Fold this sequence. Notes:
The chain has helices spanning 43-51, 93-103, 108-121, 137-149, 167-184, 195-201, 219-224, 229-234, and strands at 4-12, 18-27, 32-36, 58-63, 66-67, 78-81, 155-159, 187-192, 204-209, 212-217, 241-248, 251-254, 257-260, 274-279, 284-287, 295-304, 308-315, 318-325, 335-340, 346-349. The chain is α+β, with helices and mostly antiparallel strands. It has a six-stranded mixed beta sheet, sandwiched between helices. Strands 13-12-11-14-20 form a five-stranded antiparallel beta sheet. The protein has a five-stranded antiparallel beta sheet with strand order 15-19-16-17-18, with no helix packed on it. Helix 2 crosses helix 3 (108-121), helix 2 (93-103) packs parallel to helix 4 (137-149) and helix 3 (108-121) crosses helix 4. The radius of gyration is 24 Å and the shape is elongated. The structure holds adenosine-5'-diphosphate (ADP) and magnesium ion. This is Carbohydrate ABC transporter ATP-binding protein, CUT1 family.
Amino acid sequence: MAGINATQLVKEYPGGVRGVDEVDVQIHDGEFFALLGPSGCGKTTLLRSIAGLEAITAGSLVIGDRDVTNAEPGARGVAMVFQDYALFPHMDVGDNIAYPLRIKHVGRDERRATAEKVADGLSLQGLIERRPGQLSGGQQQRVALARAVATRPDVLLLDEPLSNLDARLRLEARTFLKELQRDLGVTTVFVTHDQAEALALADRIAVMKAGKLQQIGTPREVFQRPNNTFVAGFIGSNPMNLVETTVTGGGISIGETSVPVPAGTEGLVRDGQTVIWGIRPEYLRWVSSEEPGAIPAEVSVVENLGASVLIAVNASGHKFQVVVPEDHEPAPGDRGWLVPQAAKTLLFDAE
Ligand code: ADP
Ligand code: MG
């Protein structure tokens, strides 16, 4: 078992694109760690740099107690599952799983025995003699996982392992992956562009944008206390409302309404300052009669989410989204008020 310690890691591609830009990250021994960000932000590059599949441009990398900055991939104690699984089509499942053991010159009988044991653990019983082309997507994904864990790596690197599965299978595989990681206790770095997946699975999440880390924290921390508007907008099934406005009389001006500044920010803002006020759609209440501190608004769009409804409203030129229980569904054109949960509001610097 081993933690990972990256210091000022830079990977510059020919042409000058920095796939990874001065990344500092410490991943703990046994941790399930998610790298989260939009396509092209550098997740795969960082993962491949940890695996040793990319030579880094600058910085250092320690796995366990060894500096592996310049070590060969095979000498790092890591195993990687690629986004497309990269199974060998001409080999059966057993040989696919046992392949890394063959590279390590493990004997045939022991290879086969280990492959069968790992296959059992990943619910691949009875499929040992099939070729990858004869398997479903979910089975292929488990073979790729089995191949990675067969060598008992210190570190498991997973590049979007669920993204090729359909929605229902993805949920099942997610649970399966969580259980596997818990049983093995192996330090795991999990790459995803899906914030819900990262929130559901990870002990901690690193949010990336354009090669740079934006925030590292527990799912609760990045959800409740995003560092900046990028993280605030990226995390959450409905994007956070981010409203640019000014501080007036010690409060946040939304039209004629003055909303109290978030607790703890009282001394940090001054009148006339432009700020971004943030509140999640789940933390706004839509009411049809006025309440103290409520913001008058008009409904523009109503979207059904199933058990709830997402409404878009206009409040003095500001747009908000609000999650409303299904039995309180308003209609476009309805007028009412928004009541923010004061403890859930956030303030960001205007860009
Ligand atoms: P992600 O996995 O988050 O989608 P990548 O790590 O694949 O992002 O890519 C990060 C950035 O590096 C992107 O701008 C991408 O175009 C660039 N990049 C990735 N691989 C290469 C490469 N082999 N050569 C040049 N640029 C690359
Ligand atoms: Mg990628």
